[in-house]
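User: Is it possible to get a 3D structure for a protein together with its bound compound? The compound here is tryptophan. I've pasted both below.
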Amino acid sequence: MTTRVLTGITTSGTPHLGNYVGAIRPAIAASRSEGVESFYFLADYHALIKVQDPARVQRSTLEIAATWLACGLEPDKVWFYRQSDIPEIPELTWLLTCVAGKGILNRAHAYKAAVDKNRAEGEDDDAGITAGLFMYPVLMAADILIFNADKVPVGRDQIQHIEMARDFGQRFNHLFGGDYFTLPEVVIEENVATLPGLDGRKMSKSYDNTIPLFAPRAELKKLIASIVTDSRAPGEPKEAEGSHVFQLHRAFASVQDSERMRDAFAAGIGWGEAKQALFELIDAEVAPLREKYEALMARPADIEEILRDGAARLRARYATPFIAELRQAVGLRNLSARAQTAAAAVEKAALPQFKQYREKSDGRFYFKLLDGQGDLLIQSEGFDSPKAAGELIAVLKKVDRADAMETPEIVLHAPAERALAALAQLREAEG
Ligand code: TRP
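Assistant: Yes, that's possible. Here is the predicted structure of the complex:
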């Protein structure tokens, strides 16, 4: 089984070191590991929430696409696309909008922060707040759920959005009675997830404290020199922990080099010298990528072609058939097909069912048999693979002898007759 890893970057700015360390670099590394299917996309619909300058949206989309390609993304090995090239995403956004709790959206950090700011300024709660900002988490949930992503690498500020995606997906699954959506898990690259910016606050375009990833060498050097530090002189011992220069250094250095820098801080390295070392370190990693980036930026038509091709293949493979299934699930159906009556739906829901799942604590694969009311009848032991679990399910579905209930891989939670009756009911329903 492959794991689907999906990540997006809003196309509202120029990629900075924080984006690179927090999202792009770990995502590209993960895409190269075995058993991973990666999805990278340019979240240009999200950009419209913040940016009403069309030239900037276009420019940023180009810059971010070129950045990912320069950083080693291989568009024939991973899915690389632009959100607005996948019309199934806004379509799913609406389906999710209709199950998302408004109360949950009220609690979204970004929206709440905007309301708090209004209150502090004595304004109306929702002054200047668009419905787009409010709906941001639903659009993001659609990005993730449309491809049934298992893992979503993001910055810490996005954790709540992934939780919301799980919530909306779960509500949909529950309401429409199926395992339509995989519930995504957030992935945070520990210790380098958020980089400090020039002023020490989180590096973010909203704080205007960023270091552009592909700033020319001279500018990179100047920006690093401008990182705010305290006024301790060379020779005075400095604490590595809590120093922004050190944190940035650690994000690019090997463990050994980072420890060496920690010792240098304790020994009183001057800020100028520490910043020079930081500059050389970052430039050594970035310079070869910068060269590729500049070559790519000179050929925007090629990038356009790569993105369109990615979206077209991805839609045909997943998004278009999946949205058809979802439309069916909610009742956007061909009218000539016989309507499933409410009674038939209830009958279907009342069938016993096998549920297969993976236990997080031990990573093994399990199943259980539930009756129509959801009572546990049979619980399996852990299997090494979903296939092994599935094989035993297939056997159980076929047998009708009581001794099958003595299989060592299962534990009965109800009288054997009840479990057998449920299996018989399933057999009949499945024909
Ligand atoms: N909101 C994310 C950010 O600002 C960008 C994003 C949009 C995203 N859709 C996504 C990230 C889906 C991961 C998955 O960083």
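Residues 370 and 423 are 10 Å apart (CA to CA). The chain is about 50% helix and 10% strand.
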